[in-house]
Amino acid sequence: MPKSPPTPFRPPRRPRLRLLAAALGLALAELAPAGAQQAPEAVAPPTPPQETDALQLTPSLDLAQRLSPAAQMREPLFIWADQLSGQTDIDMNASGNVELRKHSVVFKAERLHYDIAQDAIDAQGDVRVVRDGNVFSGPSLQYNLASGTGQMPQAHYFFNRTQGHGHADVVKFLSHNRVEAKNATYTTCTASPLDWFMQATDLELDSADNTGVAHDGRVVFKGVTILPLPYASFPLSDARKSGFLPPTIGLDSQNGLDYAQPYYWNIAPNYDATLTPRLLQRRGFMGSAELRWLEPSFSGRSFIDYMPSDSAAGGSQRWAGVFQQNGALAPSVSYGLNLQRVSDNNWWQDFGGVDPVIGANRILPQQGQVTWSQPNGSIQASFNQWQTLQNPASPIGVPYNTQPRLYGTWHSDNYTGLQWQLQAEAARFTNSTPGLLSGDRVYINPSISRPFIAPEGFITPKLSFNSTYYSTDTAMANGATTATRNLPTFSLDSGLVFERKTRFFGHDVTQTLEPRLYYVYTPYSNQQYLPNFDSAPLDLNLSTIYVDNVFSGSDRIADANNITGGVTTRFLDNATGAEYARLTLAQRVLLREQRVTLTGPPVPAGLNDSFALASVSLDPRWSANAAIDYNTRLRQLVQAAVGAQWNPDSFRRVSVSYQVQSATATQIPLKYVNTAWQWQLSNRWYSVGQANYSILDKQFNDGLLGFEYNGGCWLARIAVQRNSLSTFTASTRLLFQLELTGFSRLSVIGNPLSAFEQNIPGYQLLNQPTAPPSRYLNYE
Q1: Which residue, 543, 661, 516, 669, is CA-closest to 613?
Q2: Alpha-carbon dihedral of residues 375, 381, 382, 383, nearest 10 degrees?
Q3: Which residue of 197, 231, 375, 666 has the fewest C-beta atoms within 10 A of its own C-beta?
Q4: In a 10 Å sphere around its CB, with 0-12 CB exposed, 13-18 middle and 19+ buried, how is residue 470 labelled?
C-alpha cells in the first residue's frame, strides 16, 4: 500500500533579512545575458515644453500583476545573504539566509550558486520557491530563471488558489506556468492524519489554462480507496473545462438503482454542454444532454432525455425535451421561448428527479412571445399552449391554450393632471376538455383618471369602459356563436396619511395612520352564457383589496356598487426608514347584491369580505406575516395564511407556515402546515429538512429530512426525500453526497445538495467558496 502523506506543509513567516545588497541588485540588473539585451533605439530629441503643456496623471485602480515582455527583459535581480562572493559577469556564490528575488518569484536557501551567463541557479539546504503565491520547498533546487525550468527532489508544495498541499518524489518546473510532480499527493486537509488525499503517479499542473491532469491515481478517504483515477483532468479554479464529472448514483422506490456518468464539454467561452448516459435498474438505458449558450443579443438552454426502451413500461420509448431562449431582435424588440414536452402522462411520477426543469410538474408550457416596448407602453404577440399530464387517481384541470394572442397597452406620459390608458387584446382560446367552449375574444379597455395628490392624502376619480367581442366554434348556452359585452366602470379612490413620532419596542419610529376609502360602480350585464377562458377569483394580498373587479382575467366583470373601507398603520425607523411592522384592516360592503359570479347564486348586499394583513420584523433575525379573508355575512373563514421565519445566526434558520382554505363554490378545502429548517446542532453536525403536512388528509404530502457533517476539509450529506404522487401513492429517494473541499463533490446516491437548495428557503452552503485568494497572500 502507498504511504500516507506526511503532516501538511504550511509556509512559515519570512525570516528577517540580515544583509541588503542594494548595489549588487542594481549591478545585476545590467548583467542580463547578451541574448536578452536589446539594442538601444534611436530617440528623437525631446520637444521643448510649451506654455500650455501641463503635467497629467492617469489614475490606476490596481497594480499590474504581470510585467510586459519588454519589461521582463530588463527586470532587475536582487540577492540578500550573510556572505556574498563571485566573479563579475561569470557567477556569484551566496551563503547564509540567502534570498534571490525577481518579479513574481522568490528563492530562499542556505547556499546558492548563480551562473550569470546561463541565468541559472543551484540552491542547497532548506530551499523554498514562491511563485504566484504557490510555495515549493525541498532540500535542493536547480532552476533556470530565463526559461522557468528546473527540478526539486523530495518536494513539498502549497497551492494558493485551492489552499491545497502535498508532496512528491520530484517536482519538475517545465515552464513559468507548468509543473509536473512524480508520485505526488494532494489534499486540503490540515490535521494529521489526513482524512483524504489524492495520490497519482504523475501529476501535471498548468496555471496558464488552469488545468490539472492526474495519471494512475486514486482518491483515498479514511484510509480506503473510494475512487480509482486511471486518468483524470480537472480545473485548478472555477473556470470551465471539458472532462468527466463525478458519477451520480441514485436509489429510489420508482426506478431502483440509478447510475449516471456526466461528461462536461466546454465548447466555447459562451457555449457548453453536459452529456449524461445513465442506467436505471428497473427501466434500462437513458441518455440526457444539456446545452447552454450566451450571445450578446440572446441566451438560452435546452435539455433532452431519451430512453429507447423502458422495460417497466412494455418497452415503450420515453422522452422529454426543453428549449428556453430569450433575446433581442432590435433595441426595442425582445422575444422569449419556453418549450417543454414529454412523451406520456406518467413522466412526472417516473422521472421527476431526472430533469431539473420539468421535474414533477404536471402542466408543461409551450410559450413564445415577441414584445415591442416603448416608454409609454408595449405591444406583444404571443402563443401559449399546455401539455397536461393526467393521473386517473388525481386528475387536474386543463388550462386553455392561447394561440395566438395580440396584446397592447399604452398610457399618457404625464404624471400629473388628466391621465389616460388604453388596453386591447385579440386572442384565440382552445381546450380539448368536453363541454368547454373554444373560440376568439377581442376586447378594448380605455380609461381616464385625474389624480389629486398632496403630502397629506390623495383622491383619484377614474372612468373606464370595457368592450368585449366573442366568437365561439360551437354554440354558447344561449344558442348563439357570437356575443358582445359593453360595460362602463366608475371608481373613486381616496386616502389620507397621518404621521407621529413615537417609540415601538425600544425603537424611535414614525407611525403612520393611512385610512382609505374606495368606491366602485359597474352596472349589471348577464354573462352566464359567455365562455370563461381565463377568469378566476383574485388571490388575497394588499393589491387585490381595492380593485374594480373581484375576478382576474377578462371574461367575468362583476357588477358592483361597493365601498371598501380600510386603514393601514406602519412603523418606520426614523434613521433608516426600515419598516418594523405593518397592519391593514379592510371591510368590503355591497350596497346591492352582486349578480355576476363564477358559480353559485348571487351575493347578497351588506357586509361581505373582511380583510386583515399584518407583517412584523423588529429584528433582522426574525419576521412574521399573516393574511386573512373572512366572509362576515356567512361567518366563514374563506382563506388564511400565517408564516414566521427565525434566523438567529448563520446556519440556523427555521420557517413555519400554516394555510387554510374553506370549501366554496370556486375553491376546494385545504388545510396544511409547511415547515423548513437548517440548523447547526454542533461544531460538526447540521440538520436540514422540509415537511408539508395535510391536516385534512392526515398525511405528509412532501418531505425531506437530511443531515450534514462538516469534517473541515470534507463534507458529508445524507437525506431521505418523499414526493407525493397522489393521495395514496408516493416515491421515496435516498440521497448521499461526499464533498472533498477544494477537489470534487461525489454524489454517491442522488444529489442531496440540489434537494436542499430547492426545498429549504435561505439554505446556506457549508464551506462557502470565496473569491480566489490574491497571489500576494503568501508574499515573502
Answers
A1: 543
A2: 170
A3: 375
A4: buried
Residue type, 499: E
Query: Position 135: which residue type?
Result: V
**Of 53, 112, 60, 50, residue with least CA distance to 81:** 112
Strand partners of residue 448: 420, 463
Residue 55 has pLDDT above 80, yes or no: no
Query: Going by C-beta distance under 8 Å and a sequence separation of 6 or more, which residues neighbour residue 557?
Result: 466, 485, 487, 489, 522, 525, 527, 549, 551, 596
Q: What are phi and psi of 353, to 5 degrees?
A: -95, 5
Instruction: Using alpha carbons only, give the angle 611, 614, 616 rounded to the nearest 5 degrees.
Output: 180
Q: Which of 272-286, 485-499, 729-743 has the lowest mean pLDDT?
A: 729-743
Place of cell 386616502: 495
pLDDT for res 48: 44
- Statement: residue 46 has pLDDT above 60: no
Q: Are 629 and 609 in contact, with CB atoms under 8 Å apart?
A: yes
Cα–Cα distance between 12 and 504 in angstroms, integer? 54
Distance of alpha carbon 34 from its chain centroid, rounded?
Answer: 55
- Rounded CA gap, 453 and 497, in Å? 11
- Phi and psi of 607, rounded to 5°? -65, 135
Q: How far apart are CA 468 and CA 436, in angstroms?
A: 19
* pLDDT greater than 50 at residue 4: no
Tell me the percentage of the chain whose pLDDT exceeds 70: 87
Q: Is the peptide bond before 76 cis (omega within 30 degrees of 0)?
A: no
Answer yes or no: is pLDDT of 592 > 60: yes
CA quadruple 25, 31, 37, 38: dihedral sign: positive
More confident residue, 69 or 359: 359
Residue type, position 425, single letter: E
Q: What's the whole-number mean pLDDT along residues 498-521? A: 94
Residue 423 pLDDT: 97
pLDDT digits (tens, 9 = 90+) for 373-406: 999 999 999 999 999 998 887 788 899 999 899 9
Predicted pLDDT of residue 772:
59
The secondary element (H helix, E strand) that includes residue 127 is: strand 120-131
| Residue at 384: amino acid letter | N
What are the angstrom distances between the C-alpha of 545 and each of 271, 542, 574, 613, 759?
47, 6, 29, 10, 31
Phi, psi of 752 (to 5 degrees): -65, -30
- Residue 649's CB is within 10 A of a number of other CB atoms, namely 9
Q: Per-residue confidence at 42, pLDDT binned at 50, 70, 90?
A: very low
DSSP 628-645: EEEETTTTEEEEEEEEEE
Whole-angstrom Cα distance, residue 308 to residue 287? Answer: 9
Nearest residue to 741 (alpha-carbon basis) of 712, 707, 718, 706: 712
| 34: helix, strand or coil | helix
Residue 12, preceding peptide bond in cis (omega within 30° of 0): no
Question: Given this model, what pLDDT does residue 289 score?
Answer: 95
Instruction: Please report, in angstroms and rounded to a whole number, the separation of the first and last CA atoms in the chain.
Output: 38
Task: Identify whether the C-beta of residue 534 lies closer than 8 Å to the C-beta of residue 556.
Answer: no
Among 395, 322, 343, 337, which residue's Cα sits nearest to residue 370?
A: 337
Q: How far is Cα 535 from Cα 520, in angstroms, rounded to an integer? A: 19
Mean pLDDT, to the nearest integer, of 665-682?
A: 88
